[in-house]
Amino acid sequence: MANAAANQPAKGGESIGIGDRITLLLSSVTVKDKAVFSRQFAAMFNAGVGMIRCLSVLTEQCGNPKLKRALVDINGEVSEGGSLSEAMRRHPSCFDNLYVAMVQAGEVGGVLDEVLNRLAKLLEDSARIQNQLKSAMAYPQTVGGIAVVIFLGMTIFLLPTFTGIFDQLGAELPAFTQLMMNISFFLRGPTLPPASEVPDAESWIETQNYAIIVFVGILFAIIFAVKQYYKTPVGQFQIDKLLLKAPIFGDLIEKTAVARFCNVFGTLTRSGVPILNSMEIVRDTAGNAVIADAIDYARDSIQSGGQISEAMQEKGVFPALAIQMMAIGEETGELDAMLMKVGAFYEDEVEQAIKGLTSMLEPLMIVVIGGMVGSILLSMYLPMFAVMEEIG
To answer: Which alpha helices (DSSP H) does 271-319 contain, by range?
Structure first.
């Protein structure tokens, strides 16, 4: 029964085997995939190609198996007379609420090609910022990983070889060297001595150091507890609030959130999506619980006859420049244009902040690696200096 159900034809008319299902589960639709799809769809639709023909061609050319499966189903529903937005809504893993709302506005207003171009521009900008963040963090992650491996290797394997030498010298170990020896003993954990030195298994177990096991267990417990706490509304709000106030990354997180809010909100309103629906979508795509709470407060203020800029100013989350530009846009009736300008400005700010962060992290990581290696070398040479002083 299970095999028969797994191989039943899908709505698009193709059967899905077990292997295909596993491939679909493991694959994901990236921002870049949606940006390329939107740009190609807009170009073909603007050239006068019918929607069903566009979907058929894009389905054949699609290289992402998950997106291709969704396009097969969407093409089938549109061929039967359904709307494009409703067909996309049934595939939330490929097309989120933002995408569906803009496509729906484009269908209602008869400007689907323009909306798809705006979507492509929005997704391309988002993908560019994500790639810049990944590139900025690739260097410190790689260097940091190498530094940790070097430190652990020298602490676990190199320092113990000097223990016997220090014992033979008979000199009192300096405090720093003793500290590094304790760390080495801590990291090595239980070690099995020669059989002649172990009277029985129970006495060996009682004398072993299980601090590393306890430490790792506590560390995993803390990480698990933080993740569970972050899943709660209160925990997510508190942790996101701390992230916004972080010394180095807080400003970058805030600028990224402001740029995303302005670009998404401006694109939605310019595409004809009602402002309350736009605020709801922007809130869900904010990426930070504090920013989402401020957007939700502004949405309630609009329903009561207030203004977005005043509500944002009361929350004190957004920068003064963004609030002033939003206030001008509300007064002149060109809120979407002002939002797009603010979004472009903060995108440039994010790019500059990423470049500054990268240039700052490179020498910092070199200093950290030098300090880690130097501390091990210093702990090995200090006892030698002490012995030489005694001999002198």
So the answer is: 275-284, 289-303, 308-315
